[in-house]
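Need the bound structure for flavin-adenine dinucleotide, inputs here:
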Amino acid sequence: MNFVARADAARTVSLTVRPAGHELLLAYFGVDYARDLEAQGTLDAAARDEVVKIFGTQLGSQIRRSTATGWVGDRWARGSYSAARPGFAHCRKVLARPVGERVFFAGDACTVDTFGAIHGAWASGVSAAQHLIATLARGRLAPAVPSARSR
Ligand SMILES: Cc1cc2nc3c(=O)[nH]c(=O)nc-3n(C[C@H](O)[C@H](O)[C@H](O)COP(=O)(O)OP(=O)(O)OC[C@H]3O[C@@H](n4cnc5c(N)ncnc54)[C@H](O)[C@@H]3O)c2cc1C
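Answer from helper R.:
Posting the output first, comments after.
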C-alpha cells in the first residue's frame, strides 16, 4: 500500500507499507523537506514522527530498527526519484524535447507514465536514441566541429 501523509503540504512523507509482503515500512521525503532533513541528519527521526502521527504511538514503539539513505548529498546522484508537482506531470514531455535538434535528453524524469523507474529511464533512452538516429538520417544534425576529412 502506498500513500502520501498529507495532500495539503509539500513537507510531507510518502509511505509504502509492507512492500512485497515484508514487515517493512518505507518513508520517502521530497524536495526541500528531504534536503533539510538530510542536512540535519534527522531522516530517521522524522520518519518515526510521521509514522507515529499517522498510526499512533503504539505502532511507533514497535519499530525495531530503522535506517536512512540520503541521496541529495551524493555528488554523483544529487537526489533520487524525479517528481513533478501536482498538475505538472505533462511538463515531463517538455523535459524530453531536444534543444535545436542537437542536444537530446533521456532519463526517467522525461517519461510521463514510467517516471521514477529503471524501465522508464531505459525506454526514454531508446526513444532519444531513435530520435537522434532519425535526425541524423534526415541530415539535419550538422557536425559541431568539422571532421578532418571535410576540412
Ligand atoms: C534508492 C533507490 C531505489 C530505487 N529502486 C528502484 C527499483 O527498485 N526499481 C526501479 O525501476 N527503479 C528504482 N529506482 C529508480 C531508478 O534508479 C531511476 O529511475 C533510474 O536510475 C533513473 O535513470 P536515469 O538514467 O534517468 O538517471 P540516473 O540513473 O540517475 O543516471 C544519471 C547519471 O548522470 C550522472 N550525472 C549527473 N550529473 C552529471 C554531470 N553534471 N555530468 C556528468 N554526469 C552526471 C550521474 O552520476 C548518473 O550516473 C530507485 C532509485 C533509488 C534512488
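Comments: The mean pLDDT is 88. The longest strand covers residues 13-17.
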